[in-house]
Amino acid sequence: MEDLETSRHVVLSGCSGGGKSTLLAELGRRGFLIVPEPGRRIVAEELRGDGRALPWIDLPAFARQAIEVARSDRRSLGCADGWVFFDRGLVDAAVALQRSTDQRAASILEQDARYHRQVFLTPPWPEIFAVDTERRHTFTDAVAEYDRLLLAYHELGYDTILLPKIGVGERADFVLRHLH
After folding, report:
1. What's the domain count of the chain?
2. Is residue 135 exposed (0-12), middle (13-18) or buried (19+ Cβ within 10 Å)?
3. Quick one: pLDDT at residue 17?
4. pLDDT at position 5, please?
């Protein structure tokens, strides 16, 4: 896997309900490789069965599973050409595990290749936040999660770029203009 300076794996992170998935879909529509959020995939799978690895039931189990899914995503796209955009990823899952256990995110991630040094964060945006079957937490919970992620990405040495609250096409243009 590529190192920090050469990685073309770009993370979209930030506040739940801030428009990450919509932005990811737009980047996919423009021909870029995209990777959906591990957490949403896990929740959908767990809800189809009798799963217990749900963030509102067993956050440590959910976070550990999200780490494994994110690692698998990275391995499967390690040789991809061009930019690859991830809706969340390893750091987000490690921060969730850190929150629910005594494990530090940095130690969880020490064996993993880093993503691109620039990480794009969606800020809290109450006007578009919505609860659904896979996102059951409140806006206040989402803001607290955003604050944890912003701090973690800084502590891990990533350059965080806050996405403006603009239309999805303009957001995609913003991301593409700022990548280097």
Report:
1. 1
2. middle
3. 85
4. 41
Low-confidence residues in the chain, pLDDT < 70: 1-6, 131-136
Counting beta carbons within 10 angstroms of the beta carbon of residue 68, is it exposed (0 to 12), middle (13 to 18) or buried (19 or more)? middle
Structure tokens at 17: 């309900």
Predicted confidence at residue 92, as pLDDT, reads 94
- Please report whether residue 1 resides in a domain: no
Q: Is residue 147 part of a domain?
A: yes
Q: Is residue 83 part of a domain?
A: yes
Is 158 within 8 Å of 115 (Cβ atoms)? yes
Give the model's pLDDT for residue 136. Answer: 62
Helices (H), ranges, the chain: 20-29, 38-48, 59-76, 90-100, 105-109, 139-155, 168-178
pLDDT score for 135: 61
Q: What is the CATH number of the domain that holds 80?
A: 3.40.50.300
C-alpha distances out from residue 111 to 56, 93, 106, Å: 28, 15, 10
Residue found under tokens 């990685």: 7
Residue 2 in any domain: the answer is no
In angstroms, rounded to a whole number, what is the distance separating the alpha carbons of residues 103 and 15?
Answer: 22
Q: What pLDDT does residue 1 have?
A: 40
Domain interval for residue 62: 9-178
Q: In the prediction, which pLDDT does 86 show? A: 96
The residue type of 147 is D
